[in-house]
Amino acid sequence: MAAVQPNMITQFTSNHSAGPLKHIGEGACGSVWCASSKSSPYSANTPLVLKREDMSNVRSITHEAEIHHHILQALANPRVATTLTTFRVNVPLSHGLLHHTNSAAWSQILPRLPAGYTACSALVSEKVHPFPFRVRKLLLEQLTACEDPQKVAQGHMNTHCLIRAYLGKRINSRVEEDARPAHLKKLRPYILRNFPLCVDQMEDLELNVDGYALAMADALAFMHWTAKVDANDVEFVLGQRRSDKTRQTLPCIGKKDFESAALGPHALWVLDFDCCRKMSMDEEGIKTACKSFWRNDQYYPRPGSNNPSDQRLWAVFREQFLKTSDGLLEGENEGVKKLPVMLMDMIKETKGRSLRGALVSDDRIEGQK
C-alpha cells in the first residue's frame, strides 16, 4: 500500500496550526480526527481525516487501506460508468497510509493530539462533510424529545453530524409510540454523530427512500461483482454532497444527486472497509456475501417483513440489484451470471438464521420518538 505523500498530512501538523485536532468519530478499528470541524465542502482546501489504528488489536488499518485502494481502482472499470447511472454513492478518496514508523510526520502530529497518544499506522482520506446547524436542529426537533434543540445542536459533540441510513429498520416496529414509557425517551444522550435514521423516520421527513434503496443496490452489486469483495460491515451514511467543482471528478458510483426539503442537497456515502475481504465468484463466495449482508447493520432493505412498505422497498432493492448485476456481469460465463439471483434467494431463505438477522432489526433506538 502506497505511503501518504507529505503534502497530504500538512493540515494535521503543528507547522500548519498549533490548535488541537478535532476528534470526530471512532469505531472498532480506530479513532478519527480532522483539522477543523467547521470546514465545508466548498472550502478552498480539501479537508481530510486521519483514521488511527488505536482501538483494536485485531482490526488492521493497513488492510483497510488496501481494500479501500482496491475499491477505488475497481471504479475505473469502464462498465461501471455505463451501468451505474442512478443515484450517486460517494466513495471517499484515499490518500494512502501513514506508517507508525514515520517519526518525522508523527513528531509534528502528536502535539495536536491529546496527551498520551503515540505514533501508529493511520489512513488519510477525504472527509465526509457533516450536515449544517439547520439540519441538526431539525433532527432534534422532529425525531427526539430534546427540550432545547438549538443548544444541543450547537454542542461540540454534535457539529460533525452524519446520518446512518437504516432502510432495513423501523424504530416503531414493535409497539405504538403512545405505549412507550415516557422515561425511555430521555435515556439516550442526544449525540448527532452517526445519527441512526430508520426508514419510518425517513418517510416522516419525506426523504427519497426509494432513491437510497436504488443507490445501495448499485453499490452492493459493484462491490460484489466488480470489486469482488464481500462488503462486510461497510457503512452507508448521509452527509453533505461534494462541491460542484469536485462532484464530477472524485470517486463515486452513479450520477444523480439527492435533495430534500429536510436535508437540502446531500449525498449517500459508503465507507469503512476494514472488515471487507475478497470473495470468490462461486457458491462459496455467495455464502460469504450472504453472511456479510445479515451481519451488517440494517442499511439495506430486508426481506420477510409484514409491513407492506418494507415489502415494496425490498422488491425495489432486489430488482435494482439484479438489473445492475446483469450489466456488470455481461460477458461472464453462465455460472457467474447466476450468482446474483442465488444471493438474493439465499438472503431471503436465511432471514433470522444468521448472526445478526431480522431479530436485530426489531430492536429500538433509545432517545428518539
TrEMBL record:
A Pfam family hit: DUF3669
DUF3669 domain: residues covered: 268-332
The protein, known as: DUF3669 domain-containing protein
Source species: Colletotrichum gloeosporioides (Anthracnose fungus)
